[in-house]
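Lab notebook, bench 4. Still working through the backlog of constructs that have no structural model yet. Next entry is a single chain of 320 residues. Request: give me the structure tokens for it.
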Amino acid sequence: MRARLDRIEVTPRQFELLAYAGLAALTLIVFTGAAVRLSGSGLGCPDWPRCYGHVYPPLQTHALIEFSNRVVSGLVGVVVVVVALAAWRRRPFRRDLALLALTLPLGVVAQAVLGGYTVEEKLAPGFVMAHFGLSMVILIGAAALAWRARPRSGAEPAAADPVTAWSVRALGPLAAITIFAGTAATGAGPHSGGAVGQHLKRLDFDGADTLNWTIHAHGAIAFALGIAAVVVWVLAERRQADAQVRRALSWLCCLIAFQGVVGAVQYETHLPSELVWVHVVAASLCWLCVLWAIAACGRPAPLRARKRAQIRASIIARNP
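Model written out:
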């Protein structure tokens, strides 16, 4: 068996496709997990890893939804394990890709353990928030792997303009804070993840006004992210940043604008679960756009390299 595995070789193009498959699978599980929560099926199976003490769920809607998500999680686990194994069989072998690929199955295992504790703690808001936050952290590794798995062209790309690069990087922490604030708003809202009649803990640090406070705080932070994204987009356009960077920022600005509309509508319509799910999906896509832009920026050019490039450009301009 081992000799047979040793004969398997993965080409750079094949591994690139597998890396993107891993990223897609890990993004999909965020969407299905949100659907479980917003359908009130978070405790459809009140124990873990079994469902009502059995390896199969009873014929109940919430139990079937929750158990189906667990099955999807298992399939995602298989995908990321395949990606991790393929990284070690990639030829030529790259250590950076192999180490990045290992973070994916480790992240899925961590999610499974945290998910078990979340069920055991009856969907306590802190555990649910951590569960979503860990998903966003895992997407960092998956996005980095997919980006770095692209076959390198012969020449090294030009170093990024430092002003643009650091401006794009600054969007990362702000986007993370926005997502955290969004999970807090959901944790204080009506979508606890449980079915009707199940009394679960909600965030209530400000009493009855907790939901209103978290929604407005999340809205203010999201508005700041939108303004920052537009400013960075304008900066990138003026400084003629890499086309990938500008494309990612354009998508980010459009998604944030869409998020603003969805957020306003769901607030006025008293947070219907369908719109909240759309909001979660768009938030995850915003996060991927931020990661895309950061990856495309690369490392800022060192000061000496920038000066050499300027001198070289001036010499070429004088002696065409």
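Notes after review: The CA atoms of residues 6 and 19 lie 21 Å apart. The mean pLDDT is 85. Flag for follow-up if needed.
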